[in-house]
Amino acid sequence: MPKRQVFFSFHFDNDVWRAAQVKNIGVVEGNESVSANEWEEIKRKGDESVKRWIDDQLGYRSCTVVLAGSETSNRKWVKYEITRSWELGKGVVGICIHNLKDEDGNQSEEGTNPFSQFKIGDIGFDKIVKLYDPPFSSSKYVYEHIEENIEDWVEEAIKIREEF
After folding, report:
1. Which domain holds residue 82?
2. Is the whole model's pTM more than 0.85, yes or no?
3. Rounded Cα gap, residues 48 and 30, in angstroms
């Protein structure tokens, strides 16, 4: 089976290093990383420029994988990516990455569920979309757990969206 095309959504400043680890697992095909300078250039052009970039990235993806760190649920563009992904019929799934180490070898605090602030009709989005929290505190084991399961999580998210 070919690799699924996914969009990775995360808080760039806090979690780019952790997100890179998940992207480098390689069992799903993710969006190209942008450098801090490229992201700043996109943002400098205004909100419409950011939305256009996100929409372009989502265009040929089948699922959005929200890499949830300590502040992910508070990020304006993560919220847009989640909402837009669902509107476009994409699967949406979350993976907690706070226990992966950053470039300095540090883990972070667990954040709140980025899906808990949305509703589909009367149903909480967090009751529809799954957020997986690897059951380990060791960064190595968290990475291995994500590596072993991300493909299945993506497939499940796509099925959930198709059924909803």
Report:
1. 6-163
2. yes
3. 23
